[in-house]
Amino acid sequence: MREKGTPSPSFWAKVPVDPAFDQWLTIGVERKVLVVVRTVTTLTRLLDILSLIENDHRVQLVFTYDADSTAIFSAGVPEYLGKLRASVVPWRQAIESRFDLVIAASENDDLHLFDAPIVLVPHGIGFQKYYPRSRTVAGMNPARLVRDGRVVPAMVALSHPEQRAHLRQAGSEAAGRAVMVGDPCHDRLRAGIHRAPAYRAAFGAPGHTLVVIASTWGPGSLLGTVPDLPLRLVSELEYDEYRCCAVLHPGITAAHSPWQVDAWLSEARQAGLRVLPPEAGWQAALTAASCVISDFGSLALYAAAVDRPLLLIGDGGETMVPGSPIEALAAQTARLDPDAALGPQIELAIHRHSPGDHAAIVKQAVGAPDMSAGLLRPQLYRLMNLPEPATEASFPPHEVPDVEPQEVAIFVVGAEAAGAATRIVRFPSTGRRHDLAGKHLVAHETRATLRQLSSASIVYIGLEESDRERFPLWSEEILHQWPDAAVAAATVGRSTCLVRTRDGVQRELTLTDRSIDPLIAASLAYLDRLSPTEVVKIGDRPVTIRVR
């Protein structure tokens, strides 16, 4: 039986990739292209490049990976290919078959075994790091680029002309195959800048400051250096002013397992942290971000490429290549102090940022910004010996991700008079102490623990519009079940909160600002402030609530 999540068998996996079997095809393809996948990271980079040729009816794309000689971070590759529903050829069959082109994003597979022109592209933004415990630039291992006196790749893609010097150090023979084509990932990221509002909506962040933390792998990474940073962010930042999202390098889950990483982040998730899957969505997160907190991985430079305020953690360690763009970015970017309050540092980074602050450094990393499609696609078709399509070469923007909302289990809420308004401050309750006036707890009916519910002043649930008739009976039962609760509340849609107080009075509270969680209105019932029109303040922002 096929293991769940692995690619399903396909035509290409059942028969040799040979013209004798073309009679079974529906589309008369003229070229067969093999995509060599080593890790989830390399696959995400390859998909950017494949977007230039994937819709050409003359080209069949086939994937492979070496299951017998896997990379340390190869976990997740079969599952990701399964999600793509791609044709996957077993490694042994792939090296015994003839292809018109091979595309790879790592030199560490045995690419010399393939019978086809090979295009080798970086799996990061240029060549910024050494391999661990070596002085070999990652992506330019001379022992892999040249085998038995023969240069393996027909083309080595560079994102900047200065990278040719690194390639010469790896071997002059390989340097002769270098072609500067810019950075496809950079250009596709920038192609989606106009979708930033839609991306922000997907992260639940309209009207909020979206803080994205981006961690590469290893002990010197953000997560390795400050493993409690995700929880601290959601604990310290006011819920109604901020949203938080974590983007983790696939190597983290590959080394520790998705289950373990999920367990480590479970408390932060229950407090509202959105954690993206390793294979997708990070591009939208960077584009949507109000501020990015990163280590010295590629995502720091990609955040700079979309001109986002940036805070760095760490020093890059011994793997950072001297003189690289990431080193230059480190020299001019403020560090996050993990021992100081996070909110003021984030606000200062946003306040100090000016458009174009990172432009000079990004220019050092990407030699032909926004031109990669026009530079790379002709090379691919040249190597396939196939006429290039007449359409303009361009990268499609990334789709709006389907981000699972994280419903907070329990809030600690402060409420106090602010003139004619009521100022409400909410934090997810994570054990961190908050000294607040009018302090009370608001707990979710099922997500909160028994102990949390027993001390809550408000117990709430979320209802669909079609279920609002459940509220009278549900609220009566809740107040009977939890005798210390003063209010039962239910959010309905994006702007309405139904409340019932212990004296049996029911009210419908409607917010005029749909970007604010309507649950905040339940605190007005707890404070017994339910005149026909009330105003609450979230930070300095007034929000009108209509009561009926």
UniProtKB/TrEMBL annotation:
Can you say what this protein is called? Translation initiation factor 2
- Source organism per entry reads Amycolatopsis regifaucium
